[in-house]
TrEMBL record:
This is AAA+ ATPase domain-containing protein. It comes from Rhynchospora breviuscula. PANTHER family: BCS1 AAA-TYPE ATPASE. Residues 489-501 have a biased composition (Basic and acidic residues). The keyword Magnesium applies.
């Protein structure tokens, strides 16, 4: 025991001697550096932990990892902070979410793959007269120190940092407004070289408000979920992480509403690609390269966006130089012909969705919509091209119930059985789109619930009778001479705007045929 006391006394003596040398040899500011060095050396060689400093400013640029850790801890700190840990609360501009961050010089524990790690938020005043910087630096030096067990370091660190980056990106995405992009500059770029313009995406349509068969709706939602969570599957299967949906059906059946519901469900940005503004395949590729991951790329009315009538024969007439090139979709090869005509080809479009370029980015959904699936080139429809074909049909009975809930606030159990079967019969006969039903319901929404239902039922019955009459007229016209048929079509066009649209499409189709 006596020996122990003697060695402790001599150790103290040595320490006192070293301290006096330190005081004599080093001025106060160098002394701090020296002590820090000693601390680090003992940390590195004697400790069973590894320490990593992640500073806010790395040289002159902002350290991306610092902001990622800050965001990551805003999630895990809130969950795992003990009672002694202090958290700062913040809310970003344009965000409805509150975030927690670790207060200055406080610590928090985290677990990853069953292993403990400790984070410390180190904030020290920046010393004047330090290193020169051409831009003003904050008064405080901020950084995080990560403490991790030496034995876990190799296995844990890379995966843990990846996990932090991914979580932070997800939090950022969730707390910010999503965007709706469009390419209306006709291939032009903004000063930062972006071909897309954007506005906040605020469409209120959701799968809850979308009126369609609930089983089909669930299928689509399950498909979207499987896609969004399918990173590993796509990697293993050697497939690009993307999915294509073709939405088709008459106007007003909810194709655009479905796209908005998809975007809101997955919280993806939307790129609304206006094909008529794109003049060449290479322009199309550039646009694709500038889209971000976790987005839906939409081409609406694909049959109208491109001239399909003369897609196969090669262009014979030379293009007038002063005329802008007309976008055209052809299934013939690209190459020289493409360069000469300066137009989009079908193969260009297919490359856009399917080819090597479609993989420059991850987790993207392509959605095409059309009112006339029969007009599309079979190359676009062949299996594997668009993964899911979704038919948006006239309003069915289950869809009507959803619309009644949305617009009149009436749930199914509130309906009288008699009314329910009347509604079912009327909607079955009416052949009416959800858009038209919505119009009827909007008109009646201020009435008392029961009255609103009765009025809506009357309107539906009226439409059902009209459809019956139109159906009969259509059967009759089959036997008429061609001149008479046109007259009859005009009469029908005057009777119903829905029919008018159909008639006009019919005429255009005929002209094209004659050409
Ligand atoms: N299935 C639906 N569920 C809910 N609302 C719908 C549905 N279909 C249409 N609507 C209503 O009708 C309006 C028009 O619908 P939407 O624009 O989605 O139709 P569309 O199929 O894209 O039509 P178009 O082919 O003319 O582009 C929407 O604002 C929406 O309120
Ligand atoms: Mg639409």
């Amino acid at each position: 025991m006596k020996e122990h006391w003697t060695s402790l006394a001599s150790l103290m003596g040595v320490l006192a001697f070293l301290t006096s040398i330190l005081h004599t040899l080093f001025p106060p500011e160098l002394r701090l550096v020296f002590l820090g060095l000693i601390r680090r050396l003992t940390r590195n060689f004697l400790s069973s932990y590894s320490y990593f400093d992640i500073t806010e400013i790395d040289g002159v640029s902002t350290n991306e990892l610092y902001s990622a850790v800050q965001l990551y801890l805003s999630k895990s700190a809130a969950i795992s902070a003990g009672c002694g840990t202090r958290l700062s609360l913040t809310r970003q501009v344009n965000s409805s979410a509150f975030t927690y961050t670790l207060s200055n010089n406080d610590r928090v524990d985290d677990w990853f793959q069953g292993k403990p790690v400790v984070w410390e938020h180190v904030v020290v005043p920046r010393q004047n007269g330090g290193s020169f910087s051409w831009r003003p630096l904050p008064d405080e030096k901020r950084g995080f120190t990560l403490r991790i067990r030496k034995k876990d370091r190799a296995a844990l660190l890379p995966k843990y940092l990846d996990h932090i980056m991914e979580t932070a990106a997800e939090i950022r995405r969730r707390s910010q407004d999503r965007l709706l992009y469009t390419n209306t500059r006709g291939g032009g770029m903004d000063p930062r070289g972006h071909p897309w313009e954007s506005v906040p995406f605020k469409h209120p349509s959701t799968f809850d408000t979308l009126a369609m068969d609930p089983t089909r709706k669930e299928e689509i939602m399950a498909d979207l979920c499987a896609f969004a969570n399918g990173k590993l599957f796509y990697e293993k299967a050697g497939r690009a992480w993307k999915r294509g949906y073709l939405l088709y059906g008459p106007p007003g059946t909810g194709k655009s509403s479905m796209i908005a519901a998809m975007a809101n469900f997955l919280r993806y940005d939307v790129y609304d690609l206006e094909l008529t503004e794109v003049h060449t395949n290479s322009e199309l590729r550039k646009l694709l390269m500038k889209t971000t991951s976790k987005s839906i790329i939409v081409i609406e009315d694909i049959d109208c966006s491109l001239n399909l009538s003369n897609r196969n024969p090669a262009r014979k007439k030379p293009m007038p130089l002063n005329e802008p090139p007309v976008p055209e979709m052809r299934s013939n090869a690209v190459g020289m012909d493409d360069a000469l005509t300066k137009s989009i080809t079908l193969s260009g479009l297919l490359n856009f969705t399917d080819g090597l370029w479609s993989c420059c980015g991850n987790e993207r959904i392509f959605v095409f919509t059309t009112n006339h699936i029969e007009k599309l080139d079979p190359a676009l429809l062949r299996s594997g091209r668009m993964d899911m074909h979704i038919f948006m049909s006239y309003c069915s009975f289950p869809a009507l119930k959803i619309l009644m809930r949305n617009y009149l606030g009436i749930e199914e159990h509130e309906f009288d059985n008699g009314i329910l079967s009347d509604l079912e019969e009327a909607i079955g006969k009416a052949e009416i789109t959800p858009a038209d039903v919505s119009e009827i319901l909007i008109k009646n929404r201020c009435l008392e619930k029961c009255e609103a239902v009765i009025k809506s039922l009357e309107a539906l019955k009226c439409r059902a009778n009209k459809s019956k009459v139109i159906g009969n007229v259509a059967v009759k016209t089959k036997g008429l001479e061609e001149g008479e048929e046109e007259e009859e079509q005009e009469k029908r066009a005057l009777e119903s705007p829905k029919e008018a649209k159909g008639t006009m499409v019919g005429c255009i189709g005929k002209e094209e045929k004659e050409e």
